[in-house]
Structures are given as C-alpha cells and as structure tokens.
Amino acid sequence: MRMRIVLLAIALLNASGLRAAPEGENPASWFAQGNAKYQSGDFPGAEELYRRLVDSGVESGAVYYNLGNACFKQKKIGPAIYFWEKALARMPRDQDVKANLELADLFVVDRIEVPPDPVTIRWILVAVHFFTLEQESWIVVALFILTNAMVAVYIVAGRSGTALKALVAAGICALLLACSLASFAWKLYESAYIRRGVVVAEKVDIRSGPGTHNVTVFTVHEGVRLRIHNTVGGWYQVSLPNGWSGWLPSDSVWPLTGSDASKPIDRSK
C-alpha cells in the first residue's frame, strides 16, 4: 500500500480557514512527521499527526489518502474508507485511491446487492466526476473566455475563411461550456444537498424511528456507504443503495457531503 510523500507548503498557505496551531508547533512539519511514523510502523502516531492537519483546516487529497492508509493498517475499515472517499473527491482520477477502496470493500461485512446502472448513466457519472469542483470552475471560466474570443474573431473577420473557422470553434466551445456548466451545477448541488456518509461504528442497529425505543429493522457494519435524508436530535434517517432505510445514531456515521460534512470527526473511532 503506497504512501504519499509530498510537500504541503502550498496547500497549507492556500488552506481556507486554517486554524492556528498550538504555540511551538508547525503544521508544515506534521505531514513529514506523520510519514516518518508511518514508515516506522507507528500507525496510531501517524494517524494522530495527519488528523492534526485535517483539524487545522488542511483539505488535501494526499493527507486524506495517507490518513486512510494509517487507519487501514490498524484495521479501522470504516474510517479508512471514509478518508479514502475524501481523498477521491479531491483526486478523482487517482488509481491508487480507487484500488485502496476496492481492497477495503472486501473487508466490509455487509454485501449490498444493487442493480448496475445502464452503460450510458455510468459513462455520464464518470465524466461528471472526472474533475473536482475547483477544476471544473476553472474549465468553465476558460471555456467562457475562449467562446467569447472566438465570437469576437468571427465578428472582426467578416466573411473570410477565418470567420467560418472562428464560428465553428465558437460553437464547439459553447457546447463544451454548456456541458461543463451542467457538470459544475450538479457538483454544487451534490455537495450541498445530497448528504452521503460512511458507517464508522463497528456495528450499528438501524431502527424504525429516531430513538432506542424503536424496533431494530436491520443491522449494518463499518464501511457501509449510505445516504442521509434527515436529522432528528442525535439520529440520522438514512437509506442504503438497495433502498432499505431507517434511523441510526448520528455518531455512528461520518458525513462525506452536505452541510454537516465538515463537522469535527470523532477521534475515538
């Protein structure tokens, strides 16, 4: 299982909401220290240092990737899957992250049978998630500028052959811009309103309502991905990919997307 060794200076400088480190501590050194502990076999120590970076506001695919590795080495399947999913959201084309998630899925107790999506839908989903939200925003800006530039060339060139080429180029850019805008809009909607999470408790009962007085309808284990629909007190209403639904304690799930995805993670897991 590979470990990422990268310089985080730029990520630390650009991290939005970076919180102050305790006096005498340098967040830029935590990643290197975590890597050193990981390589020496001190996986709990590596996890602690990587989590410090996350807690300080660093949003880096490399940090989440290594954090998932450290958890997996400690047989924390749920947290490992959670952190690798966070890494994949920031590095959607990374084959190492995808391979690790496939490996971790072999250790998930629950086997949830879901009919495969049609080929067309699968290709659309691959295309939509090929870039991150930030990358997509830059693509939209670039295509918008390029489309307008081609239109300007068409207007200036008059009836020449250059004008025809510019018109064709403008049409292609406009089509790509429309596709990118649709993908960008879906990513915004997905990140804000579609709440997904990973079960991190070793085992949790799904109940018919919010509260332990309700009957248990089924049980899930760590590593299961689910969708969060509602929150009542300390309970989430959730559904599995196969359509099964119910309620579970909110501290048994770490949200990946949605308004509560950035809430502090429980260090006891």
What this model shows, in words?
- It contains 9 helices and 7 strands.
- It is globular and about 75 Å long.
- Residues 9-21 have low confidence and may be disordered.
- The two termini are 22 Å apart.
- It folds into 3 domains: 9-105, Tetratricopeptide repeat domain (Serine Threonine Protein Phosphatase 5, Tetratricopeptide repeat), CATH 1.25.40; 119-193; 195-255, Roll (SH3 type barrels).
- Helix content is 51%, strand content 14%.
- Helix 2 (27-39) packs antiparallel against helix 3.
- With 269 residues, it is of the alpha+beta class.
- The strands form 2 sheets. It has a 5-stranded antiparallel β-sheet with strand order 6-5-4-1-7. Strands 2-3 form a two-stranded antiparallel sheet.
- The protein has helices at 9-14, 27-39, 43-55, 61-73, 77-90, 95-105, 119-128, 133-157, 161-193; strands spanning 195-199, 203-207, 216-221, 225-232, 235-239, 245-249, 253-255.
- A hairpin with a 2-residue loop joins strand 4 and strand 5.
Topology:
Layout: H1 9-14, H2 27-39, H3 43-55, H4 61-73, H5 77-90, H6 95-105, H7 119-128, H8 133-157, H9 161-193, E1 195-199, E2 203-207, E3 216-221, E4 225-232, E5 235-239, E6 245-249, E7 253-255
Antiparallel strand pairs: 1-4, 1-7, 2-3, 4-5, 5-6
Q: What are the salient characteristics of this protein?
A:
269 residues, 7 strands, globular, alpha+beta, 3 domains, SH3 type barrels, Serine Threonine Protein Phosphatase 5, Tetratricopeptide repeat, single chain, 9 helices, two-stranded antiparallel sheet
